[in-house]
Design brief:
Two copies of one chain form a homodimer. The first copy, chain A, has 21 helices and three strands. By secondary structure, chain A is mainly α. Chain A has two domains: 2-94, no CATH class; 123-494, Orthogonal Bundle (Neurolysin, domain 3). In chain A, strand 2 (230-232) and strand 3 (238-242) form a beta hairpin. The termini of chain A are far apart. The A-B interface holds A 9-10, 13-14, 16-17, 20-21, 24, 28-33, 36-37, 39-40, 43-44, 216-221, 233-237 and B 9-10, 13-14, 16-17, 20-21, 24, 28-33, 36-37, 39-40, 43-44, 216-221, 233-237.
Chain lengths: 494, 494
């Protein structure tokens, strides 16, 4: 057992170093170093892959299983879960040959440049032949992984274990039916900031947030990157980023709240006493996203949150020279805008973007539609759901990076995150009704963080994603609480 | 030969990643991550050590040597040099068992804390038992490495190949004899800055410097750390740091100039067409230091340099509200202060600090003096050379970190750097007499950078350190040019 622990520590160490190489390349690295950095990441990734799929790992699993059979350690159940998770991940990894993995990595690496160029020129035709290859390889990959019902499930499983396209279809249909009338009823509110807010002022406010929400400054950093992200290079080294728009200082704040949610989850996981272990890891992308969305939306767009932070924000932003009425500000951060661009969209519209992508990529992987038909299908669906006309491919089918990376099955986890976050928060609040008072009066978020720590963070991968939500809330995952939350928010603003 | 190149590329990649782990820990890392970071560095260092000393490396050397014997490749001479350098380094590394290396690493890691504590309490007695162990192990290490004349040579060789204590003794004696009267004759000039200069203002000026001196912004960064340093995590990723004192804005600038000199050398090395290779590496610490000192002192403390940069500096520092006469400024940056602290000392006094340390550590390693006598010896020598009285151990024998790290033989390379820099610059200037004009009128440093590129950077480890200096300047290394430079500087100010 000790040799397995040592092995897993080394394996985790390599993973942490790879995370630093990535973080540095997005936040710090001089631009000419990109290709060398690629070599560095490739070297360690290959080392890590060899460790995971190699014979020594198999031998250690056998030894560990034997030990668990023949002894009665106090943590026998935990050990069995560790081996179940590890073997599951390992068997999946072994289904692809290293040649296939490398070929796919080269293709998607190349595709990133082609996609960026096509998006710049607003011309899907330029991306079509490459995307065709990615879709073909993704279908081949699904066949290699294997599935019971449809190939999309095999890809989805990599992001959200236990999730099925047929279940998502039902879940998303009820959500979509509720969202479309909601979006048509909701209002858009204008940006109340009359002047630009400098990056220094925004940053000065943002730097205060993570530690107040519960992420210690001594174990984390907040920096700037092109796209906000969250990562970790150790149990006590969680790093988040945001980006700054001078005319809309709100966007950097919500970037920080979102990424802090991710980082709190990772920080909580790493405080499990069994760290590092295959079980001490995020259970799924959907649950991960629920943690970011919960702090961004349920908490960050609440009246209580801003009752507490508004004076500080005005002070840090040096807004004394004109009126910025709280009400205008509060409406703006909860405005519904039906934007065509997913990453710029509000919390209501966002889910329609995701459902559209899910429907399209599921049909692509089932060969029901062809890559060449994508722009037409995309634009028709946008008109149907949003009532908006797409003018060109850049604001349509080419807007997102995911497909160029071969990440089919990833999109639905964003909306699962929204659904889970509303359901989790509803359950928390039903037993912690003084929470909004704690927040608005004292900026005290500890009851929420403690509840999440107990019900989500410290669960690691002990339960499957849906089981975790069920155990935490007493109900199967369902979209009822998200719809209720969005409805009440819209009504509150009117 | 191809398999050796692949091996060396992987080995270099690991080294670059280790450099990033170190850089990040000094510049970015949240404090609670220190122990995990130690594990990460230890993991990769052990991997790197195993690669270097392992059987595969030996096999590849044999194959490469066979190939060179049986074929006539165009780069046969280069290949032979590669193997000579590699075998020399490898044989040295193999002389210490991994147990010994680990024991020494644990001891010095522990000693760092003990030294810091003792320095804080200004009490050498607290450090004495630990330093005793380090000295004992260093003597043991020298025995393992082996030597012809005295044990100190075996340690020195690790930093400055081909250098001997007996040669240093002669070189340093003549230098010391010239420096002591010079120091007594030289004047100290007061700080002419009447107000603090903010870190933002200083940084704004400093960020301009490296690229003007020839280090491209697209391949480098300048950040802040506790102690200035220079490192690289790839051929096109050279990073330097400085530190800021608000009341003395000059110190951060000279930090930048010094570290830029180191980085230019490393950047020039990595542009050798054979990169990466055992030959494409700094030839010695003395030559490395000559590159930093040359840009810091010969260039950075020159009148021409400041003729060009002074107006920019005043502008960036927002110094309009009071007079800062150029002459006062120029005297201040060339002031001689006889300070007791090495890292705060001027370019004249500095070398006396080094010679004192060399004399002491040589005697320590030869067992001519005992660790317990160090404070007394230190203080007596300070009085003799500087005419100053040491009040406590913190400003005396405990001031430097090096001995706690077991780095005996490191100090002399600082003064070798000063000697080499004066000798190199003298040779360059004798054939490029328009240089000061190019600098003062146009900020054009290209002739110097090109000369160094040809005569130092692109030589890699093709020559031994002393040969390199001789080939570049036509003379054996000697202290004449350093003394001449310092004398003329002092006379100029009077």
């Amino acid at each position: 057992m000790e040799s397995f622990k040592k092995f897993w520590k080394d394996y985790s160490t390599i993973g942490d170093i790879i995370s630093l190489l990535h973080w540095d390349s997005e936040v710090m690295m001089p631009e000419d170093a990109r290709s060398e950095r690629g070599d560095q990441i490739a070297y360690l990734s290959s080392l890590s892959h060899k460790m995971f799929t190699g014979d020594e790992c198999a031998k250690l699993i056998d030894e560990y299983n034997n030990y668990l059979e023949k002894n009665l350690p106090i943590n026998k159940e935990f050990g069995k879960r560790e081996m179940l998770i590890l073997e599951r991940d390992r068997n999946r990894a072994l289904k692809l040959s290293s040649e296939f993995v490398e070929k796919f990595a080269r293709l998607t690496n190349f595709a990133h440049g082609v996609w960026a160029e096509a998006k710049k020129e607003k011309d899907f035709k330029k991306f079509e032949p490459t995307l065709n290859k990615i879709v073909d390889m993704s279908i081949e990959m699904a066949d290699k992984y294997g599935y019971a019902n449809e190939p999309y499930d095999a890809l989805l499983e990599g992001y959200e274990y236990g999730e099925k396209a047929s279940d998502l279809e039902i879940l998303f249909k009820s959500l979509k039916n509720s969202l479309i009338p909601l979006i048509n009823e909701a209002k858009s509110y204008p940006n109340p900031f009359k002047k630009e807010v400098s990056q220094e002022f925004q940053n000065s406010f943002n730097q205060k947030l993570p530690s107040i929400l519960g992420l210690p400054n001594t174990s984390s950093r907040l920096d700037i990157s092109l796209h906000p992200f969250s990562t970790g290079m150790g149990a006590k080294d969680k790093r988040i980023t945001t980006r700054y728009q001078l005319e809309d200082p709100i966007s950097s704040i919500f970037g920080v709240l979102h990424e802090t949610g991710h980082a709190l989850y990772e920080f909580g996981l790493a405080s499990m006493k069994e760290y590092p272990s295959p079980v001490v890891s995020a259970v799924s992308l959907g649950v991960h996203e629920s943690q970011s969305r919960l702090w961004e939306n349920q908490v960050g767009r609440s009246r209580a949150f801003w009752d507490y932070f508004y004076p500080t924000m005005l002070k840090e932003f040096s807004i004394y020279h004109y009126d910025l009425p709280f009400d205008d500000f509060y409406k703006f951060i909860n405005s519904v805008n039906k934007t065509k661009i997913r990453v710029e969209s509000d919390q209501v519209t966002y889910n329609l973007h995701i459902i559209l992508r899910f429907e399209i990529e599921r049909d692509l992987i089932s060969k029901k539609i062809k890559v060449s038909d994508l722009p037409e299908i995309w634009n028709a669906k946008m008109e149907e759901s949003f009532g908006v006309k797409i003018e060109n491919d850049a604001e349509g089918v080419l807007q997102d990076v995911h497909w160029s990376g071969g990440a089919f099955g990833y999109f639905p986890t964003y909306t699962l995150g929204n659904i889970y976050s509303a359901q989790l928060f509803n359950q928390f609040f039903s037993t912690h009704q003084s929470f909004w008072d704690d927040v608005s009066k004292r900026g005290d978020f500890s009851s929420l963080k403690n509840w999440l720590n107990k019900n989500v963070y410290q669960k690691g991968r002990l339960l499957e994603p849906k089981e975790l939500i069920k155990q935490a809330t007493g109900e199967e995952p369902n979209s009822e609480y998200l719809i209720k939350y969005l409805k009440s928010k819209i009504q509150e603003l009117e």
